[in-house]
Amino acid sequence: MSEGAAKKEEKPRKFQAIRGTRDLLPPETALWNRVEQAAHEVFATFGFGEIRPPIFEATELFARSVGSETDIVSKEMYTFVDRSEKLEPQPVIGSMDVFLQRVKQLYKSGEIPHDEIGLELVEKQWQKVDDLLKGASSIESGAIEIYELIMLFEALRLGGDVSLRPEATASVCRAYIEHGMQSLPAPVKLYYMGPMFRRERPQKGRYRQFYQIGAEVLGGSDAPAIDAEVIEMVMMFFDRLELQGVQLDINSIGDRNCRPKYIELLRAELLKVKDKLGPDSQRRIETNPLRVLDSKLESEQGIIAKLPRIADHLCEECAAHYAAVRHQLEMRGVIYRENWRLVRGLDYYMRTTFEITAQGLGSQNAVCGGGRYDGLVELLGGPPTKGIGFAIGEDRLILSLQESGKGAVAIGRDVYIAWMGERAHATAIRAAKDLRKAGFSVELPPVEQKFGKALGQADKLGAKYALILGDNEVSEGLWTLKTLADGSQTKFTEPDLLEYLRKQKALSS
Ligand code: HAM
């Protein structure tokens, strides 16, 4: 069969976006751009600079920071081995040295990671392999040992274990260490925006590829004013977007001093009521009792309400810090609600935690989450560093703006050029260039159309004006501008037209 015939017989397959992912399309993308532009502007007024970390990182980075027992790391990450080669042992003992040389090469180039397994197998065993190989073709027992080693080598991982980022705080801390940012004037204030990946059950406001806009403050101080200013910044951003029904919840979850004692107390209390709890909460009594407080299960609400509250068990320093954060928020006029059940689902938090909900989101109503994570940079091998930050779910933010009627963006064109005739076409091309240079959006039809059809098209595209260019207009040097909203028409010389449009734009903005 010829190649062409084979192609014809292949059934065309319709592809669809992977479950939990979606295309963001115009005109909605204009709203995304407006939101992102507002973030750039508001965050800059607080002295934040943008960081763009990679979309995938070593899996270990997320396991260490977010926590290997959390849902995000244990169930939801997209993880793969970043492998570019295959290592295949040779079937004949005599040609084994080719395979072994390849192992050595790959180890040298870094394709086989220089981690504990790589070190053990390649560096420590190498001498033994070399010795064995010399006598292998004649000594049977040597051959068996070589085969055993080959099997071990086969177990070598080629390339690192990497994951699509489920969040970006870990990446920002990694970058802070990698680039020695502790030597910059403190605190270092960074923000980011971009896609994150979690394999969650998709529903309204919950996707497997979703977008966050986040910010982190890293440095030597844990002054409560820093916590309050970070929160003030998000609230100003939401205010600027006119996000509706904004509700800020705050809490303190203590530190290494007081939290373990509280968790023990909570565990003991939970054990007393274990039988009345659902299976998820029963499991969490052992794995992470704090997360029981997160439960939305109706039948558990009465029980949870009677549990000991962390606010009553904070150590002196944490209690003072929490009180000062509240005071600092009040000084900034930020309205908050204390929520002792706000524990958050990531391991790195300590002391201040907060969450913001907004209107129109149904059950997935958290539009922003954040908190303090002193010690995370240290945990990742960096210097002692304090940190606090947040991430906004951009998909949810957009959804809430749309649902409350605050998501409108100007669509359409400023000018649709309706031209007829060869000479008019040349003039139309020049007019389009000049208008675009002056910042107007222009639609220039590629083929001639009757004026009636062109005007209908201009209407459909939501154009404000139609510029009519026919033979008469071109020879008179007077162009007709039709305002589509009211149908009025005026004639302008070329420079007057530009001036008029400029004035109208200034008036409407
Ligand atoms: P998070 O609470 O896991 O925190 O996520 C922050 C926000 O991202 C959530 O409040 C929600 O709006 C949005 N989000 C999370 N998962 C999804 C999803 N599957 N679909 C749509 N939106 C989602 C963090 O990620 C921390 N890194 C925040 C942080 C920064 N804490 C300190 N610094």
Radius of gyration: 32 Å
What do the pLDDT scores average to? 91
Distance N terminus to C terminus?
Answer: 64 Å
Unreliable residue stretches: none
Q: What count of helical segments does DSSP give?
A: 19
Q: What class would the helix/strand composition place it in?
A: alpha+beta
Short description:
The protein is of the alpha+beta class and 509 residues long.
Model description:
The protein is built from 19 helices and 16 strands. The protein has helices spanning 3-9, 28-45, 59-66, 71-75, 96-109, 116-135, 140-154, 169-178, 224-240, 259-272, 279-287, 301-305, 316-331, 376-379, 394-403, 422-437, 451-460, 471-476, 494-508, and strands spanning 49-50, 56-58, 79-81, 161-164, 188-197, 209-219, 247-252, 337-338, 350-357, 366-372, 386-393, 415-419, 442-443, 465-469, 479-483, 489-492. The strands form three sheets. The protein has an eight-stranded mixed sheet with strand order 1-5-6-11-10-9-7-8, sandwiched between helices. Helix 2 packs antiparallel against helix 9 (224-240), helix 6 (116-135) runs antiparallel to helix 7 and helix 9 runs parallel beside helix 13. It is globular, with a radius of gyration of 32 Å. The structure holds histidyl-adenosine monophosphate (HAM).
